[in-house]
Amino acid sequence: QVHLVESGGGSVQAGGSLRLSCVVSGYTGNRCKAWFRQAPGKNREGLAMIDDNDTPTYTNSVKGRFTISQDNAKNTLYLQMDSLNPEDTAMYYCAEARGRCRGLPEYLYIYWGQGTQVTVAS
Q1: In this predicted model, what pLDDT tens digit does every residue of 9-39 receive, in sequence order?
Q2: Closest by alpha carbon to 95, among 19, 16, 20?
Q3: What are the helix (H) ranges across 23-94?
Q4: Residue 59 backbone phi and psi in degrees, to 5
Q5: Are 30 and 20 in contact, with CB atoms under 8 Å apart?
Q6: How far is CA 52 from CA 13, 15, 16, 31, 33, in A?
Q7: Contact between residue 66 and residue 81 where contact means Cβ atoms under 8 Å apart
Q8: For the chain, how big is the Rg over CA atoms in Å?
Q9: Residue 78 and residue 71: Cα distance in Å, rounded?
Q10: In this structure, what DSSP letter does residue 54 have?
């Protein structure tokens, strides 16, 4: 059984930074890990993914502002978020897919955390 637990959300002023963490336990084979977010009234949006070789991929909306990384010794996935703006306000989720990274559609990811709220004030 795979478990993902996010932390690090909170409230921040526009222009500020936050670092999200996601502790992963359970499955230890090849996998792709990713961050998603969902704002009120909107669909869940894939933000970034990282494979077992530490190769990151970003969606255009966060490229240059967000950085995905992982520490395999700590079984932890991170999302460093800089230059935050009010449009980044959402619930943020980490997710995991078995095997190599194949993109950011939701249906590819079978394990999800419970989410952590990020609120950016203008």
Answers
A1: 999 999 999 999 999 998 767 789 999 999 9
A2: 20
A3: none
A4: -80, 155
A5: no
A6: 34, 31, 30, 7, 9
A7: yes
A8: 13
A9: 8
A10: -
d(Cα 17, Cα 109) in Å, to the nearest integer? 27
Residues paired with residue 46 on neighbouring β-strands, in sequence order: 36
Residues 51-97: pLDDT tens digits? 999 999 999 999 999 999 999 899 999 999 999 999 999 999 999 99
Strand duo 111-112 + 90-98: pairing: antiparallel
| Cβ 37 vs Cβ 20: under 8 Å | no
Whole-number pLDDT of residue 26: 85
Q: Which residue has the tokens 């526009």?
A: 14
**Residue 68: both structure tokens together:** 């995905």
For residues 66 and 47, the answer to whether their CB atoms sit within 8 Å is: yes
Backbone angles phi, psi at 107, to 5 degrees: -65, -15
Residue 11: phi, psi to the nearest 5? -110, 140
- Predicted confidence (pLDDT) at residue 100 exceeds the cutoff of 70: yes
